[in-house]
Amino acid sequence: MTKQTALSWGISNVLDDVEFNEKDANEFRNLLDGKETSEDSSLSLMTAGQILTGQIVEITKDFVIVDVGLKSEGLVPLSEFTDPEELELSKQVEVFLDKTEGEDGQIVLSKEKARRQRQWEHIVNNCDEGSIVKGKVIRKVKGGLMVDIGMEAFLPGSQIDNKRIKNLDEFIGKIYDFKILKINIDRKNIVVSRRELLEEERLSKKTELLENIHEGDLRTGVVKNITDFGVFLDLDGIDGLLHITDMTWKRIKHPSEMVELGQELQVMILSIDREKGRVALGLKQKDSNPWEAIEQKYPPGTKIKGKIVNLVSYGAFIEIESGIEGLIHISEMSWTKNVTDPSEIVQIGDEVEAIVLSVQKEDGKISLGIKQSEHNPWEDVESKYPIGTNVTAEIRNLTNYGAFVELEPGVDGLIHISDLSWIKKVSHPSEVLKKGDKVDAIVLSVDKESKKITLGVKQLSSNPWEDIEKTMPVGSLVKGFVTKTTAFGAFVQLENGIEALIHVTEISDQPFAKVEEVIKKDDEVTAKVIKLDPEHKKIALSIKEYLVEKNQINRDDIVVGKSEEEEETEEEK
After folding, report:
1. At residue 20, does pLDDT exceed 70?
2. Where do the H-state alpha helices sit in 158-228?
3. pLDDT at 387 over 70
């Protein structure tokens, strides 16, 4: 018997006498025989990546010690136990064998990885693309968010919501339902969507809402968009338009004056287009229409008092009462001023009195005037300025067709260009008048209703054309100054101020090439009247006939003179 055999036999006898349990005794005998123990054998079969079931044997400040039946217990970070009920001694837990031997010789376990592995197995075995899972948004990444659905899944930015997102941070930490868009088994990669669920929910709600709503119903919506023409509200599944004209009975420039994004509003359903899925909403319709009895409340002539709330180029809006505004046109602001801008008379916030001029209930319009509360200077204009009255007035404005003069504040008159002169052809009033000058005139007509007074300057003197045939008959000689020469003749202003024409054929009895060779501007000439046309105010003169007649007289004088001399000579002889 060898020493080794004897030693083994001796120890074996001892083991038989000592009270070991059968398992421990067998393990010890295997150790003496150089065989692997059951624990070593189990450990050799374990590989990293397996999920094991263990028992919590100890809980420390930072770790939970779990016995999985191997040669040593494993450490699991305490932070991986999110459920406090799991932290209980002797509690059975599933853990992931991360390493069979760590730096300190102990096995490395992870409860979190075991949970993720089980979740992945669950998803692969039970979920398809299109399945619904619950998850928690955990962090931002490039292009979207990461979601914990038991394992990490990618939520693209375009699949987060069905409306525009300003800040991704508002989603972190929140739990939602997600739809699985893609499962990549090879890469253990999952892509999910929240938007598709929201769209499905919206369409479902929209269908249900369109089936159940009716015109006249009151619904609560959330303002989701504000435009120049109105507001779009989310009615929990369907969008409705609240037009700016249906927001208030008052006049507003922009919907943002009344609402803001995210605000809840109770609105009335005005109309429904079920085929196109469109709903028209109203806010002002919840209140009674203040225009219903407007004609009885504010008949023309009523004096009202209100506040100026808006100025526009053509007038000012005054708030008579809540929801009721009237327009004071600039033409109704003053009898005496030519108002071009309403701010010349009133300012926003001013309290003013006005007179109701007209009411258009259907159009929601009230016309007002403030000048009507003052004396109208046109009331007694007929008695103050009867036809034939001589007046002196200041020239306020010149136009192509005449001159406007101010007879008194608020009362203007017009001197038409045709009433400036009997004898001069005036192309523009500025040829004879100047703005700011005083001018004498006579009243020709008065139209109180149209607020028009016409005046004349030439009527202050007699019309020289009325007796032209007596004062300047055909054949008479006249004198004047050349005012203008043309290719067809020359114009001459006569002593009475009338302008006459000497045609080129009547300028001289001698041949010439140009008019200027015979006469020039400002030359004084004597001519013979050869034609009168009082109706068209035209006089034709002739220098040639004057010269011919003059030369004939001279020749006659010469003939007469020679005869007398001959007689005297003969007598002397």
Report:
1. no
2. 195-212
3. yes
